[in-house]
Design a protein that fits this description.
The protein is an alpha+beta fold. The chain has seven helices and 17 strands. Helices cover about 30% and strands about 25% of the residues. The protein binds adenosine-5'-diphosphate (ADP) and magnesium ion. Adenosine-5'-diphosphate (ADP) binds near residues 6, 265, 268 and 291.
């Protein structure tokens, strides 16, 4: 998963609260925890009436995220994902655990819904472009062609009866960098809730999952910065409850070669890193959906991207794209019909 920093989105977060009594003698306290996870800064903010409950809940959530990283990471050689990738082309079908299964099922749904724009089999291309970033040299066209031969979401065979997977083509390599963080945030929140903590926010590198609002508040106040560029439209403020907000864009992860900026998000249809500059913010019920949709909409662009999100139940999106015209930076914005609903009191 992407060992990246994506802090631009959460520009200002005003956390108000504490001291709002529900039962006599009990008052809410705000607790905040921070820890690097999945190569990124993660944060838990929660309200509890007891410090021990808060600490135990956060500890259990961290454990769950670390566990998921050891299963879903493509950086770790021994993760379940890496072991699965190594069976590509062997003809074998491999039984996998419930977490990897859930993420692969959702990945397939997203691939189908997005017409292949979201595709976790982009691993070989991601590898090529990671090297391009390090060496600042574009991948050679024949290497892109070779990598593309090992890419394609239809080449992942999911067998529900045995909960097993077969990677059909040799050289295939799965990369869950566009979806695993969203799932990890969902699961971390589920752990908090299980421990009796529902007024909580879990965030990782700008993406987040929140539950019940802070005491006395209408939601978790989050400022969505459209683009970190001069002349960009102002930030918008949303009030989140029982939702996830994820962003995707090329602002922090890209390489510039020959005057062209290539994103870490790859268009599976061409094998090339995206060259248009956009920031996509998706709000959905679950992190796994918001994360994948944000990546998919980045690939699809504002029109088809917004259409995809409109088709997804309970999901909204805001897309800002910067376009250079006559030497001037201009901004195009698009949003789903319901995005504004999150800015208003719910
Ligand atoms: P961020 O890393 O900033 O959270 P994303 O959620 O959009 O951004 O994820 C980008 C990551 O997704 C890439 O680093 C790569 O691991 C993976 N990826 C790249 N292109 C695609 C694609 N077309 N479909 C699915 N995953 C992709
Ligand atoms: Mg994503």
């Amino acid at each position: 998963m992407a060992a990246s920093l994506f802090l631009g989105t959460l520009v200002a977060a005003a956390w108000v609260g504490a001291g709002c009594a529900t039962r006599p003698g009990l008052s809410w306290q705000r607790y905040e925890f921070e820890r690097p996870q999945m190569g990124l800064p993660f944060r838990i903010v929660l309200y509890a009436t007891d410090g021990q409950v808060a600490t135990n809940a956060a500890e259990a959530a961290w454990k769950r995220i670390a566990e998921l990283n050891s299963i879903l990471s493509d950086y770790e050689e021994q993760s379940e994902l890496s072991r699965l990738s190594r069976t590509a082309g062997s003809g074998r079908s491999v039984a996998i655990g419930p977490d990897l299964w859930r993420v692969l099922i959702r990945s397939e749904e997203m691939a189908r819904a997005s017409g292949g724009a979201f595709d976790v089999t982009v691993g070989p291309l991601v590898q090529l472009w990671r090297r391009a970033r390090r060496q600042r040299v574009l991948p050679e066209p024949d290497r892109i062609t070779a990598a593309r031969a090992a890419v394609g979401w239809r080449r992942v065979e999911l067998r529900p009866r045995t909960r097993s997977v077969r990677l059909v083509a040799p050289g295939m390599r799965l990369d869950l960098g566009g979806i695993a963080k969203g799932y990890a945030l969902d699961e971390a929140f589920a752990v908090l809730r299980h421990q009796g903590v529902a007024r909580a926010l879990v965030s990782g590198g700008g993406d987040m999952v929140v539950g019940e609002a802070p005491p006395g508040e209408r939601g978790w106040k989050v400022a969505v910065a459209p683009l970190d560029a001069p002349g960009a439209p102002p930030a918008r403020t949303v009030w989140l409850r029982w939702a996830s907000l994820c962003t995707s864009g090329d602002l922090f992860q890209h390489v510039e070669i020959g005057g062209v900026r290539y994103s870490h998000i790859i268009d599976p249809r061409t094998g090339v890193g995206l060259t248009d500059h956009s920031l996509v913010t998706v709000i959905a019920r679950r992190g796994i959906t918001a994360d994948a949709l944000a990546t998919a909409a980045s690939v699809l662009g504002p029109v088809a991207g917004i259409r995809l999100v409109e088709r997804t139940p309970r999901a909204e999106a805001l897309v800002v794209r910067s376009v250079e015209s006559a030497g001037k930076l201009q901004f195009e914005m698009a949003e789903t019909r319901g995005f504004r609903g999150w800015e208003l009191r719910r």
